[in-house]
Specification:
Layout: H1 11-34, H2 36-39, H3 51-73, H4 79-105, H5 115-132
């Protein structure tokens, strides 16, 4: 019987990258909240409460993932499987950090009601898996 581990092959690196991505979002969000002009931009109904945070972050996450994923997958033969495990782990860790910090600690009951949050989680799963299909890695 074939045994498949659900743990990424470089677990510590995956956790580090997940926390790094979350910290990038947290720091950018903190900067936006310091600058009143950015914080007070009108929300985009259903998509983003703070578009000055979510739109730049989506672009930053795409760029960061396009840099980090090939570096991460470079030494494995099972790129497709490991890309998916990497993405799922990024998403789970970011979801848990978001839940504990934004929902529980900062009492952001509406945090998970915006599409931009779920789009980010989807990006964290899909992009590493798609990049893994690139034969040049």
């Amino acid at each position: 019987m074939l045994h498949m581990s659900y743990i990424p092959y470089k677990a510590k690196t995956t956790v580090f990258y997940a926390i790094l991505l979350w910290v990038v979002g947290f720091v950018w969000g903190s900067i936006v909240f310091i600058i009143a002009l950015l914080k007070n931009l009108s929300s985009v109904p259903y998509f983003s409460k703070y578009p000055a945070i979510s739109f730049p972050l989506l672009i930053a996450y795409i760029i960061l993932l396009l840099v980090l994923v090939p570096r991460y997958l470079k030494t494995t033969e099972r790129k497709k499987v490991e890309g998916l495990k990497f993405g799922v782990t990024l998403t789970l860790i970011n979801f848990l950090l978001d839940f504990f910090i934004y929902y529980l600690l900062l009492n952001g009951a509406d945090y998970f009601t915006y599409i931009s949050v779920w789009l980010t989680y989807t990006l964290f799963i899909v992009l590493p898996h798609v990049v893994a299909y690139d034969s040049k890695i």
